[in-house]
Amino acid sequence: MILKQFVVLILFLFLHLQFHCSLSLSFNSSNTSPQLCRPDQSSALVQFKNSLSVNCSAPFLCYDDKISSWNESMNCCSWDGVICDTKTGYVIGLDLSCSCISGGIISSNSSLFHLRYLRKLNLAYNDFSLSSIPSEFGEILEDVFRFPRLQKLVLEGEVPDSIGNLRSLEVLHIHDCKLNGLIPLSLGNLTELTFIDLSNNVLEGQIPDIFINLTKLSYLSLSSNRSSGNLPFSAFNLPQIVYLDLSANKLTGHLPFQVRGLSLLEFLILADNILNGKIQSWLFTLPSLTLLDLSHNMLTGPIDQFELPVSLGPTHINLRNNKLHGPIPSFFFQLVNLTRLDLSSNKLSCIFESDKFVKLYNLEELDLSDNALLFLNNRSNTKYTLPNLFSLKLSSCNISDFPDFARDLEGLLELDLSHNKITVIEADMFSKLKNLASLDLSHNNQLSFSTTNNNVSLVLPNLFSVSLSSCNISKLPNFLPSLENLFDLDLSNNLLTSLEYYPWRNVGFLNLRSNLLRGPLLLPPNSIEVWLMSDNKLSGEIPSSVCNLSSLGILDLSDNNLRGTIPKCLGALNSLNILDLQRNEFYGDIPDSFVEGNMLQTISLNDNGFVGPLPTSLRNCSQLEVLNLGHNKINDSFPHWLGALQQLQVLVLRYNGFHGQVVLDYETPSPFPKLQLFDLSHNGFSGSLPTSFHCFKAMMDLDNVGMGYVGDRFVHYRDSVVVAMKGADFQLERILTTFTTIDMSSNQFGGEIPQTLGKLNSLQVLNFSHNRLTGYIPSSMGNLASLESLDLSSNKLVGKIPPQLTSLRFLEVLNLSQNQLSGVIPLGNQFDTFRNDSYGGNLGLCGFPLSKSCNNKNEASIFPEEDDSAAAFPWTFALMGYGCGLVFGLSFGYIILTIRKPEWLVRKVEKAGFKLKKIYMKIE
């Protein structure tokens, strides 16, 4: 197999500490006694150096420019990164990791191949993304006389089948490259391998069952690829294996029923696959196993009960998010070495009593959330404590009472009882939990707090985080004001009507969203970092003293009745990342006070009454990702200078008084490179549409963009926006990084639609409706391969509908109505599903689905050729049945077409009806 991308050789990359340390020693010890370098070796290194490009100004992970220090007048064995054999002077090691190397370095006649005795080569943490591979490179690898003693190898690209000839190879490391294709069968020939890491690539196909002869293998990681098929069972019989990771693939099938060997296995990670079947008992009896992770699979059935040998079992078990059901077997409570147990998100059931945990004295973390568990309080005088337990999660466990055993967990730091049916919390429940730092009681809908003990401040002196969201609380619980060290408080989605003051001096995160708070805005302490007050009934102005909150990073006051002007000092608040004041009653100019070096990433001021021009100081917001100014009264020309904001992803100016021509690339060489949501609708823009849509690089080739959300680095805040899509307004509660839209509808744009629009092959929504556009629909729009919604209605477009549009296979909504289009409506793919209203008001159009047929000359292009057998159908019999079927047909058609479900049947009926009408007219 010939490599398609650059192949890079690398030593071992910090994944196993012992091996890394020994490798470092081998490099260092070799340098203690430098020998004179052989002339041919020195010459090869000099040629190799001259072929490299070194640029330490690029964003590398680490910096250690070794090559620049090479002095050709000195002995090459003393050069940084070069290791020579102390007897022969041959170069046997070359460590150029972190050397700021970029570009391509390998060719079929590279001087690197003159280092015939090279055993160790490290080129890690460089950038070879521009490298190209000669077609002869596969033959080079097959030449066993090149690098005959090579022991460490890392590849980038495809793994050639000829790799099986490198019989002395000990370490194969292909981590986090763009490796693709299949794992070659010849890998099973490398019997000296001790380490294989092919993780974080895009390898596909079944993992070949080739490990039976790799008896020296101690580390195997194939995680985070696209491998499918069954598990390679030979990997579970490796006598020296210590680390086995096949997680984050698409592996199916069941676990091996039995294994042999694996006496040294410490880490077994099979998470994030599609494995099914039962969990086998041998998993809990491996003598050295410390980590067992089978989470996020589809493992089913009850876990079989068996007698566990003494002192065996993993220290960390993760079976989270499977389909396990039945009781939790008792042997789990015999795992004396267990430190972490996660059985959450299954369908397990169990009746718990306090004494079940008596042997788990090493347990540190226990997560049984989202199961059908029942806790029975043990009221006896005997108390069983878990001295090392610091995290207990029992969320969504159908619990109605505070678990009795939890009261005695003196070392507990985190307690999660959310999403249960607990109704009463008494102060004495926490009397021994003096170390508790995090308490989550949210979503216990009728929660009330006992006032029998008012001295609660002594009980929870270290409480740092409290969540009481969605508990129907109408006033602060009596213990909250006494929590002087409280930093994180969530009281959202409750019934609180007022707060006279904030009693917490050190609060940093305060969430009071979705309550009934009224009156003026009450400022929190200066320690606040995240302040969420949206969806209340607050009124009045924002006091200027808000700018004394020097640590404030997120300010969300949206969906209130606040009014007045914005304090100018907000633009100078250097800590501020999010400013969300949308859907209030603010007015006046937006202050022109955004200072250089500010950290703002989201500014949402939409749905207010702001007037005047857009403040030019917004160009100082170099980190800005979201700017939403829709639904105001701003009067200005298009702010082309915003194109200099290289991080801007969302720009919404809809429903304002913007006017004039839109020019995207004025004064900025590469404007709007990350823009993915561009909304100028419902303004007074005029002139021609911009021709430089190719500036929108983020709307091109998004196939390699990872799925995520705009601003998802913020845990407590989500960017949202309203977009017009498919004929209606939608509230996007979160904005996908792969969602792209251009909406320039309801303006006064004229002229033609530019051909450059066709370059936006990742564009999903396009709306140019209700303008004055003329000319033809450009055929280049057939290149908009990701388009789902296209609205060009209410313009003055002429000519035919380009047949290239039928290649838009994702197009769900098409609106070309109210134009001056003519000719035959093309058919094929999605165009077979569009209804009459997609074309209404275009008097020159004909063909399906319109009732207007085209002339005979064009009919062949409207309808596909009829099958011969269909043409020979005796239509006389069809007409004889016409009368009988009329009543049924009208009734059935009326019902279907009235309720418009199912739509696919409606469209088929319309199309078939139109064809039948043609044929009937011919018979007449």
From TrEMBL:
Q: Where is the Leucine-rich repeat-containing N-terminal plant-type domain?
A: 39-85
UniProtKB keywords: Cell membrane, Glycoprotein, Leucine-rich repeat, Membrane, Receptor, Repeat, Signal, Transmembrane, Transmembrane helix
Which N-terminal residues, if any, form the signal peptide? 1-24
Among PROSITE patterns, the record links this protein to: LRR
List the membrane topology term(s).
Single-pass type I membrane protein
Q: What is any Pfam family matched here?
A: LRRNT_2
Identify its protein family.
Belongs to the RLP family.
User: What's the protein called, per UniProt?
Assistant: Leucine-rich repeat-containing N-terminal plant-type domain-containing protein
